[in-house]
Amino acid sequence: MITFDAVTKRFPDGTVAVDDLTLEAPTGEITVLVGPSGCGKTTSLRMINRMIDASEGKILLDGVPVQSIAPPTLRRGIGYVIQQAGLFPHRKIVDNIATVPYLLGWDRKRARGRAMELLERVGLDAALAGRYPFQLSGGQQQRVGVARALAADPPVLLMDEPFSAVDPVVRTTLQEELLRLQSELNKTIVFVTHDIDEAIKLGDKVAVLRVGGRLAQLAAPKTLLSEPSDDFVREFLGHDRGIRRLQFVSTEGLRLRTDLTVRQGGEGGSSEEPWLLVVDEQGGPVGWIAGARPGELEPFGTFLYGRDSMRSALDAALLSPSGCSVAVDDEGKVVGVATREALDEALAEAADG
Ligand SMILES: Nc1ncnc2c1ncn2[C@@H]1O[C@H](COP(=O)(O)OP(=O)(O)OP(=O)(O)O)[C@@H](O)[C@H]1O
Ligand SMILES: [Mg+2]
Q1: Contact at 8 Å (CB) between 87 and 124?
Q2: How many angstroms separate the alpha carbon of residue 344 from the centre of ligand 1?
Q3: What's the chain look like in SS3?
Q4: pLDDT for 198-230, tens place per residue?
Q5: Which domains does the chain have, with CATH numbers?
Q6: Which of 10, 16, 42 to mutate to test the pocket of ligand 1 (most atoms within 8 A of CB)?
């Protein structure tokens, strides 16, 4: 666990970058620091590995003040990832990743072996190992940056806007891969971004900072969206807060109808119904038909029942002229159909809190 205890950073010119910051970044979780430019995110992060020293207050790593640990020792246990990866341009990818193992005195073979293992872990082809950073795309470089930070298997990972220099599609992929990696590695991660959507997607907890380095709110993403502490946080969260909150509302318990399906080329369903869902032999959805009339199959949208959020269920409903969304299981088999009425009910419940 990383603890900030009343930490202030005043630079020699008098700038107060961080002001009386108290927060905890729990072990094995992702804590995101988010806020506008200049609010002290980078400064806060760098005080953890002592690239910057705090002026007042204490930062503790599992209860031990970082000020009492020599920086080289401290940094051995802390991986650091920055924007544009910051790779060494004249070193091959494999040697970039092996930077810390080399510093730790590992022999070349072992260090490179570890680097190759990490290359795979972050989803990169082994063939890239012999290239130089300029021969990689921005997204690939960013992955190498993550691999390098993980090389000595540090328990703590500091990430400063690591994905902000890549396009939105690559960024989404990198975010998902970070979550996948984290589910395997359980690092204590402090992640800095100015993008609130990224914060909400990645954070177990999100700390919103305001300019002047003051903590505005520290909460789980869901709480942040439903109960912003003041106007600053509300504005920072943006306008479609309500819709985004549905990401955190489960589809578990959503009322489903099972009498609206009909076997492909077979029996079932009532011709009284305005829409019927055609399913194939394996129970997978094929398309909607209007009433029991054979004819055009209309498009459908699915969500994983109990696992996907209400936002996905609603999205699935909007993809189909039937206005219903199709609940499926892990194998893609239809579990049932959420009608507009059922979705309405669930939305009303969500609005109630
Ligand atoms: N060495 C320094 N001397 C004086 N002021 C500094 C120094 N480094 C940073 N600052 C100031 O401290 C404040 C916080 O800077 P910091 O880099 O932590 O912000 P940030 O939240 O990371 O911003 P960004 O989103 O733009 O990266 C800013 O006002 C910045 O100008
Ligand atoms: Mg910064």
Answers
A1: no
A2: 46
A3: CEEEEEEEEECCCCCEEEEEEEEEECCCCEEEEECCCCCCHHHHHHHHCCCCCCCEEEEEECCEEHHHCCHHHHHHCEEEEECCCCCCCCCCHHHHHCHHHHHCCCCHHHHHHHHHHHHHHCCCCHHHHHCCHHHCCHHHHHHHHHHHHHCCCCCEEEEECCCCCCCHHHHHHHHHHHHHHHHHHCCEEEEEECCHHHHHHHCCEEEEEECCCEEEEEECHHHHHHCCCCHHHHHHHCCCHHHHHHHHCECCCCCCECCCEEECCCCCCCCCCCEEEEECCCCCEEEEEECCCCCCCECCCEEECCCCEHHHHHHHHHCCCCCCEEEECCCCCEEEEECHHHHHHHHHHHHHC
A4: 999 999 999 999 988 999 999 999 899 889 999
A5: 2-248 (3.40.50.300), 261-352 (3.10.580.10)
A6: 42
Distance 15 CA to ligand 1 centre (A): 9
- In whole angstroms, what is the distance from residue 175 CA to residue 222 CA? 18
Provide the whole-model pTM. 0.82
Residue the block writes with tokens 């499926």: 328
Q: Convert the pLDDT of each residue in 285-337 to its tens digit.
A: 999 998 766 678 999 999 999 999 999 999 999 999 999 999 999 999 999 99
Atom of ligand 1 nearest to the CA of 192: 22
Query: What six digits make up the tokens of 207?
Result: 């700390």
Q: Which ligand 1 atom lies nearest to the CA of residue 18?
A: 14
The residues pairing with 59 across neighbouring beta strands, listed in sequence order, are 4
Are residues 139 and 124 in contact, defined by beta-carbon separation less than 8 angstroms? no
CA of 324 to the centre of ligand 2 (A): 44
Q: Model confidence over 29-86: pLDDT tens digits?
A: 999 999 999 999 999 999 999 999 999 999 999 999 999 999 989 988 999 988 777 8
Rg (CA), the chain: 25
Give yes or no for a contact between 207 and 23, defined as CB atoms under 8 angstroms apart. yes
